[in-house]
Amino acid sequence: MFEFLAYEFMQRALITAFLVGGVCSWLGVFVVLRGLAFIGAGTAHAAFAGVALAYLLQLPPMLVAIAFGVLTAWAAGLLEEKGRMKLDVSIGILFTSTMALAILFIGLMNAYNAEIYGYLFGSILSVTPLEMKIIVLLSIVVMGTLLAFSKELYFIAFDQDMAEASGIPARPIFFLLLTLIAVTVVLSLKAIGAVLVFAMLLIPASTAYQLTHSLNRMTWISIAIGIITSLAGVLLSYWFDLPSGPTTVLLQTALFFAALILPQRLTRGPATN
Amino acid sequence: MTTHRAEDQPRHVVAFSHATYTLSHTTALEDISLEINEGEFVGVIGPNGSGKTTILRAILGLILPRTGTLQIFDCACENLRCHHRARIGYLPQKGKIDRNFPITVLETVIMGRYGVRGLFHRSGKEDMAIALQALEDVGMRDFQNHPFGQLSGGQQQRILIARALAQQPQVLLLDEPTTGIDTTTQHTVLELIRRLHRELQLTILLVTHDINLISPLVDRLVLLNTNLFADGHPKDVLRYDILSQVYGSELIVTDNGYVIGGDSHHG
Predict the structure, then answer these.
(1) Do B122 and A149 touch (CB under 8 A)?
(2) What is the pLDDT of residue A166?
(3) Does A273 reside within a domain?
(4) What is the pLDDT of residues A127-144, one digit of tens each?
(5) Residue A30 and residue A219: Cα distance in Å, rounded?
(6) Do A270 and B147 make contact, defined as CB atoms within 8 angstroms?
(7) Residue A170 and residue A156 in contact, taking contact as beta carbons nearer than 8 Å
């Protein structure tokens, strides 16, 4: 049953799943609490446009994806700060237009390119050794940054104005959070795909949100859900020949609804720490 | 007893001089000249959109004046990241904070220490002691491990006031501290604010739409209508001829004082 551990592609897939699941669900806590779901979803589209452009011009895909993702996340952040339109409208326009760019870039290519669709739908079993090295490196960068700035990130998620008013450099921290979203989206792109990556940021944290009243515990529960469902997704996809990204996301969705229908006293009981 | 005139002069903690603030190309406050002295308890009133919240945000350094100046503790705060900011505690308008935010009471109050500590410093024992003292000051020490979201509106306000106190501020800015809580609790919260003002010698600026509730408590009332419309002792500001110019037909005179029409849905 565990003969798959001998395959290098499976080893890479499991390590990638562990990292992507952990990083997404940890960062997801701040995304959910700060209310950036929409910005994050769009960042994934933009990162995909970056991948398409990279293939068109034969540049390193992850690098261009990070550039596209960061620029779009920052643009969305600026719109949130001084939007003249309602935020969902202006950000919606920004994101559909980056998707349009992605489709345009794909259309400009002479030949059908299957690898691009790997970034769109995710293909964790085809992560190359080089890609895994990049994923490990980026995961360390994101986790280190989260660790160093967690108190500031919690504070701006609670109330950005109050954080700013208390002397926290709230705006730089907000843009740091947007940057981390872009980097995390890109490091997860190959494993989960642009269409589904945002579920990984959103669902474990939203499930944890329903289960506790403590920031600290919400973070740990979210990370546990993220890692367990990612690993389970890879294993189920191997055993039952399913695509792993959707399997992971549907597992997370099932847990989310389970938490939703649990009686309140079982979910958010009084904190005791 | 010898008097020292220089020392007897009240010290300004906040001094606006012909300050104008614009928010997305609209003038929010125009030509404001206003000085708040150390230890004063000032109420800020005015109709919706008159700049009440803007004046607090200006003092917090969240926005800069387009023209004119603002001095805080004798510092011309031209730089938004002014180091005096940690000395100003702030209670934002209720409803801005997500009631379901997963956070315990102590986790909330300790956040008051984050800005004081600065980047890369974890909060330690001393911060914990200060946070617990702040909870004690607002009479909520027994609730330290409770989920913030499960407290009543009045208790939440007290916790957020404790969060501001954990900064060990000299000035406390309160934005509509009694909105959205029942009448009995409103009085408890105001009594707490009055006691903090007295015992901790805090300078307090309290923004409210409820002019009757606040006027017996404050030393001074400031009436905003984008400009500084009136400023003085409550009895000199709460006059029909003054209020009617600002509130127009919304002003209703009752036996218990003035009521602003359309406010009924607030309480």
Answers:
(1) no
(2) 80
(3) no
(4) 999 999 999 999 999 999
(5) 9
(6) yes
(7) yes
pTM confidence score: 0.83
Q: How far apart are CA A43 and CA A101, in angstroms?
A: 13
For residues A34 and A28, give the distance between their C-alpha atoms in angstroms, rounded to a whole number.
10
Percent over 70 (pLDDT), chain A: 95
- Please list every residue in chain A whose beta carbon sits closer than 8 Å to the beta carbon of residue B112: 166
Residue B267 pLDDT exceeds 50? no
Which residue range is the domain that position A224 belongs to?
A: 3-267
Q: How far does the CA of residue B113 sit from the closest CA of chain A (Å)?
A: 9
Quick check: A123 pLDDT over 70? yes
- Tell me what ipTM this predicted complex has: 0.76
Q: What is the CATH number of the domain that holds A208?
A: 1.10.3470.10
Among residues A252, A248, A225, the alpha carbon closest in space to that of A236 is found at A248
The verdict on residue A16 lying in a domain is yes
Please spell the DSSP secondary structure of A229-263, one letter per residue. HHHHHHHHHHHHT--HHHHHHHHHHHHHHHHHHS-
Q: What is the pLDDT of residues B7-28, one digit of tens each?
A: 566 688 899 999 999 987 899 9
* B17 vs B14: CA distance, rounded Å: 10
**A139 in any annotated domain:** yes
Interchain contact A273–B (C-beta under 8 A): yes
User: Considering its fold, how many domains does chain A have in total?
Assistant: 1
Residue of chain B whose alpha carbon sits nearest to that of A213: B102
Within-domain flag for A59: yes
CATH code, B10-260: 3.40.50.300
Are A181 and A31 within 8 A, CB to CB? yes
pLDDT at A198 over 50: yes
Helix then strand count (H, E) for chain B reads 9, 12
3-state percent breakdown (helix, strand, coil) of chain A, nearest 5: 85, 0, 15
Q: Where are the domains of chain B?
A: 10-260
- The secondary structure of A36-50 as a DSSP string is -HHHHHHHHHHHHHH
